[in-house]
Amino acid sequence: MSAADIESTISNLRVLGFDSQNVEVKSGVGKEVRPTLSAFSNGAGGLLIIGLSEKDGFAPVPGFSPAKAQNQLIARCSQMTPPVRPQILIQKFEDTNILVADIPALPAFEKPCFVTDQGRYGGSYRRTGDGDLRLTKYEVDRLIEQHSQPRWDDEIITDANISDLAADILNPYLDRQKADRPRTFAHGYDQALRHLRIATDGHPTLAALLSMGEYPQEFFPRLTVTWAMFPGTSKGDITTGARLLDSATLAGSIPELVESAVARVAKNMRTGAYIGDTFRTNVPDYPLVAVREAVTNALMHRDYSPDARGTQVQVNMYVDRLEITSPGGLFGNTSIPTLADAGVSATRNQRLATFLEAVTLPGGGIVAENRGTGIQTIQQSLKDASMPPAEFKDDLSQFTVTFHRRALVPAEKHGTAKDRVARILSERESASTSELISLTGLSRTSVQNAINTLIHAGTIEATEPPRSPRQRYRKRHEF
Asked: What is this structure's pTM?
């Protein structure tokens, strides 16, 4: 960090009047610096500035010795497990010198960083706002879990039997597996169930029970989805009268939970409309494709460790947004900055994901692709609906996806079919008639008339000869 960057950072702190999420200021180096070293190491890293007094408006501390502070800081870093290895710089600032230490984030397989003499469960911290908060046992365990592949979904549920799996889900799955890998079934049905990690000695795995079970909540009553619709912008907005407009606890296998949650959103959300010259088309608050992906991801990637089996996936609708929250933060090499990168994916529940790739939904189609494209699907469907992108919040205990409720702008309310088709083709390389019908919500006749008008005007062009079954349209470029 350059001298100008440091001056800018301190200037911002003076405006705020307190430390920030990724910057901590200390007047000296005492034991109180160790929680900050832990918190920055366990998070995304941070900047430690020593030699300024927060209570005096971040003014330089008289008589501060940066060389002495540097030796003290190195000693404090060695009191951490694993030891913290900061980049330390003595920097000129307002006719004096201060100490600036850049604390790097530890790789996932080395976390948690903790104060050695306080122990792993007593001396691990995370950054919250401008302070350091001791991690709970659950949060420490989640960091430790990152060191290897979790196997909670492979656990044999001895209280359950193979008869607790739904035959109409299990049997088609087994038929497909037998067709794909007959050798797995060469030594009988029971051994095939064991090889596929569906069941051992007649008792199903947790993954099989969740993805194919008749009623998994018989054994895990809190592995559900809670649905709530609030009349305000937060849970505590309304203190009198109806505090919930609608609520339910959704139960069943994961395919059933996905369908039920999406149906609740569809039932309760507002539906607006585009009003054109001769048509009206419905516009939902939230694209259901995006909602389905978010609910599926929440159920597939949530934490299924024993500590989290009393915590549900939550789907909460407010007047201005929809939030979907699942227990456990992101796993492995996945982070919020990499969520938008196609193919960057890490699976906490490998067995469950494998089943959900093949188990079909009640209405047909598989539950999840698990190809690292779920977030891209969410963001693209929102973009196609002219909505802001989804927002993500991740910490060690939970992961939340937020969709902001759609707001119709005047130009959209009174657009024409031609305008809507032209806008879509200006944002895409090409689209078929069927795709344009799906994206606009218009009738085939309206879309085809719009296409003909735009071709006649020279705005768009066909990519194939007339009547081709592969016909697509694109914006016409002048050369």
From this structure: 0.75
